[in-house]
Amino acid sequence: MKWFILFVGIVVLCFVVALVLGFVGGGMGRPTSSLSHEPLPDEPIKDSDFDDLVFDVGLRGYRMSQVDGVVDRLRRELREKDEEIAVLRGDQPRDDDTA
């Protein structure tokens, strides 16, 4: 009787593994890409560019390279806008804001 229970257990285990791997009816669907990040456009950034902005999730949070790229781009455009505002106001842009 002990051998019969062991045999049934092994058959059930093999069936479950085959089911999960897709060898038996259905199984797992086709793999999909988890990379959905689309970088910001090269043109000047508009408010609507942030409506569909999505960062991919990595092992310990968002992918650092994608977030760093967006933050660097925002920092550069904000600096350019601050300089343009200073010129329009007749002020001299400050050189200590390079950090």
Helix % is 40-55%
How many helices does DSSP assign? 2
Numbering strands along the chain, what is their spatial order in the largest sheet?
A: 1-2
Q: What gyration radius follows from the Cα positions, in whole Å?
A: 28 Å
Q: Biggest sheet: strands, sense, closure?
A: 2 strands, antiparallel
Number of strands: 2
Structural class: mainly alpha
Strand content: under 5%
Order of helices and strands: HEEH
What sort of overall outline do the alpha carbons produce when their principal axes are compared?
Answer: rod-shaped
Distance between the termini: 76 Å
Uncertain runs with pLDDT below 50, 5 residues or more?
none
Mean pLDDT: 77
Task: Report on this structure.
There is one protein chain. The protein is mostly helical and 99 residues long. 46% of the residues lie in helices and 4% in strands. It is built from 2 helices and 2 strands; from the N terminus they run αββα. A two-stranded antiparallel ribbon has the order 1-2. A hairpin with a 2-residue loop joins strand 1 and strand 2. The mean pLDDT is 77. It comes from Terrabacter lapilli. This is DivIVA domain-containing protein. Keywords: Coiled coil.
